[in-house]
Write a structure and sequence with these properties.
The protein has 162 residues and is α/β, with parallel strands linked by helices. The protein has one domain: Rossmann fold (3-Layer(aba) Sandwich), CATH 3.40.50.2300. Helices cover 35% and strands 14% of the residues. It contains five helices and five strands, in the order E-H-E-H-E-H-E-H-E-H. The protein has a five-stranded parallel beta sheet with strand order 2-1-3-4-5. Strand 4, helix 4 and strand 5 form a beta-alpha-beta unit. Helix 2 runs parallel beside helix 3. The protein starts with 12 loop residues before the first strand and ends in a 19-residue tail after the last helix.
Length: 162
């Protein structure tokens, strides 16, 4: 069962990435692209599933709220991005969880498989920082189109984006 979920400026982005340099650059690029949402990091596909299920260390939804965006690397240890996509597909993921693949692979078979598994977008990891910021801007524009949180569900002291 999925949590009741709505998107707002404090809904986190969940980044499933095992490369520390990529995490550092993505954090900087999203900030520079004007994305205010907090970034939650998991290091492999299994951790991504635990986060989405709210299990184990991710059970406290105040500390680990439902994300508005899942950014998945395809090649990770323990469980890869394909496995996470297949898991989401079996569970009919909520429409307000955008799933984006970031991969160093540009193989057509990977792109087709990701599409069949229901990802919203596939991006080759940009090599230049400016291109990563441009990708962040595209994601910001897509996030702006997701449903916003009703004001009565906003955390105390914060206004909901309507």
């Amino acid at each position: 069962m999925w949590p009741d979920s709505f998107v707002n400026d404090y809904s986190p982005i969940l980044l499933a990435e095992d490369d520390e340099d990529d995490i550092f650059m993505m954090r900087r690029a999203l900030r520079q692209a004007g994305i205010a949402n907090p970034l939650q990091i998991v290091r492999n596909g299994q951790e991504a599933i635990w986060y989405l299920k709210g299990e184990g260390m991710y059970a406290d939804r105040r500390t680990y709220p439902w994300p508005c965006l899942l950014m998945l690397d395809l090649r990770m240890p323990l469980m890869d991005g394909f496995d996470v996509l297949a898991w989401l597909q079996r569970r009919r993921r909520p429409k307000d969880l955008m799933v984006v693949i970031l991969s160093s692979s540009e193989h057509e078979t990977d792109v087709l498989r990701v599409s069949e598994l229901g990802a919203d977008a596939y991006y080759a990891k940009p090599q230049a920082f400016d291109d990563l910021v441009a990708l962040g801007s595209q994601l910001r524009d897509r996030l702006d189109k997701l449903p916003a949180v009703p004001p009565w569900l906003a955390p105390p002291g914060q206004e909901a984006r309507l």
